[in-house]
From TrEMBL:
It comes from the Bacteria. It catalyses: (2R,3R)-2,3-dihydroxy-3-methylpentanoate + NADP(+) = (S)-2-ethyl-2-hydroxy-3-oxobutanoate + NADPH + H(+); (2R)-2,3-dihydroxy-3-methylbutanoate + NADP(+) = (2S)-2-acetolactate + NADPH + H(+). Pathway: Amino-acid biosynthesis; L-isoleucine biosynthesis; L-isoleucine from 2-oxobutanoate: step 2/4; Amino-acid biosynthesis; L-valine biosynthesis; L-valine from pyruvate: step 2/4. Mg(2+) 2 binds at D190, E226, E230. Its EC number is 1.1.1.86. Involved in the biosynthesis of branched-chain amino acids (BCAA). Catalyzes an alkyl-migration followed by a ketol-acid reduction of (S)-2-acetolactate (S2AL) to yield (R)-2,3-dihydroxy-isovalerate. In the isomerase reaction, S2AL is rearranged via a Mg-dependent methyl migration to produce 3-hydroxy-3-methyl-2-ketobutyrate (HMKB). In the reductase reaction, this 2-ketoacid undergoes a metal-dependent reduction by NADPH to yield (R)-2,3-dihydroxy-isovalerate. Residues 182-327 form the KARI C-terminal knotted domain. NADP(+) binds at Y24, G25, S26, Q27, R47, G133. This is Ketol-acid reductoisomerase (NADP(+)). Keywords: Amino-acid biosynthesis, Branched-chain amino acid biosynthesis, Magnesium, Metal-binding, NADP, Oxidoreductase. GO terms for cellular component: cytosol. It comes from Desulfohalobium retbaense (strain ATCC 49708 / DSM 5692 / JCM 16813 / HR100). It holds the Pfam family KARI_C. The gene is ilvC. Binds 2 magnesium ions per subunit.
Length: 329
């Protein structure tokens, strides 16, 4: 494992250089403002018409098209939605991607699965914060940072890692540490994590638990609190200090139940199915399906989203959250 901190990165690498942030969304708004506060010259490529265009102006930027931003910049960070990156890259970035420039990504999907194939005379790097954009901005403002991953896919200049580390320092990431990875490792672990654990696994676990209680005749409201709402308290403890901290804080009864029932619910067969999920990611089947789904106009994606949001736990949760004043923003 290789990890870099503040002293390993030199912001001077970006002196007299311009960094284009293409897409002023969740990650884009954070990278752009952090870089600017670090003294880096930033240009925003954000399409007009939406709230993010207005937000960029509110934040004191003068957003231009992705093509114009790419033209002006030495380093081009692609922060539009992953599904539309190939189109934006081909139509707007590539015509302005002259030799010696650096392409930056915050997720390896399009490079790893060959949806974007850059010319050989540019650097291709990744700086991927391990957290959502609003946190990347908030932690930076507090003097800290969200840690990040860095990777070099293509080193045309011989300075690709220095450039990636300078960018990472500019967004603050070296304050808490920047871990070296590859595009393959970042892409495959990111997809696996969100599918098997963070999003897919957790959602399925919540729903199964909720349904089990409701089908057994318990009140849906009580089931909601137990299976969804309280999850935040547990996750906060895990975030602060792992299982040790969580076990210290919960009751001995809860801890005992954890040991005897957890492995019974998520068992060796679950793990075998996790390996199947991982295999479909590694051999490109998941990527192929998601790319084709997008080409078809996302029919299954929209149907599954509608069905997920029609679940009883959503109505129960909406109703109860209205009574929790601190959640009303
Ligand atoms: P968002 O969806 O939040 O933002 C994308 C932005 O790109 C929007 O402002 C969108 O404008 C803009 N955009 C779309 N098309 C164009 C175009 N043709 N020209 C200019 N701007 C355009 O994206 P995220 O920040 O979520 O994701 C960006 C990247 O960061 C992805 O690779 C993602 O995997 C990665 N990442 C995201 C994380 C996250 O927490 N969200 C965490 C780590 C990595 P409009 O509003 O008009 O659609
Ligand atoms: Mg992801
Ligand atoms: Mg309890």
């Amino acid at each position: 494992m290789q990890i870099f901190y503040e002293n390993d990165a030199d912001l001077n690498v970006l002196q007299d250089k311009t960094v284009a942030i293409i897409g002023y969304g969740s990650q884009g708004h954070a990278h752009a403002q952090n870089l600017r506060d670090s003294g880096v010259n930033v240009v925003i490529g954000q399409r007009p018409g939406g709230s993010n265009y207005e937000l960029a102006k509110e934040h004191g930027f003068a957003p231009v098209s992705a093509a114009e931003a790419a033209r002006q910049a030495d380093m081009i960070q692609i922060l539009v939605q992953d599904q539309i990156q190939p189109k934006v890259y081909t139509e707007e970035v590539l015509p302005n991607l002259t030799a010696g420039k650096t392409l930056v990504f915050s997720h390896g999907f399009n490079i790893h699965y060959n949806q974007i194939v850059p010319p050989a005379d540019v650097d291709v790097v990744m700086v991927a914060p391990k957290g959502p954009g609003h946190l990347v901005r908030r932690e930076y403002e507090r003097g800290g940072s969200v840690p990040a991953l860095v990777a070099v896919e293509q080193d045309a200049s011989g300075k690709a890692m220095d450039r990636a580390l300078a960018y990472a320092k500019g967004i603050g990431a070296t304050r808490s540490g920047v871990l070296v990875t590859t595009f393959a490792e970042e892409t495959e672990t990111d997809l696996f994590g969100e599918q098997a654990v963070l999003c897919g696994g957790v959602s399925a676990l919540i729903k199964a638990g909720f349904e089990t209680l409701v089908e057994a005749g318990y009140q849906p409201e009580v089931a909601f609190f137990e299976c969804m709402h309280e999850l935040k308290l547990i996750v906060d403890l895990l975030y602060e200090g792992g299982f040790k901290r969580m076990h210290y804080s919960i009751s001995d009864t809860a801890e005992y139940g954890d040991y005897v029932s957890g492995p019974h619910v998520v068992d060796a067969q679950t793990k075998a199915r996790m390996r199947e999920v991982l295999t479909a990611i590694q051999d490109g089947r998941f990527a192929r399906d998601w790319i084709l789904e997008n080409q078809a106009g996302v029919p299954s994606f929209k149907a599954m989203r509608r069905k997920a949001h029609e679940h009883q736990i959503e109505d129960v949760g909406d109703k109860l959250r209205q009574m929790m004043a601190w959640l009303q923003k």
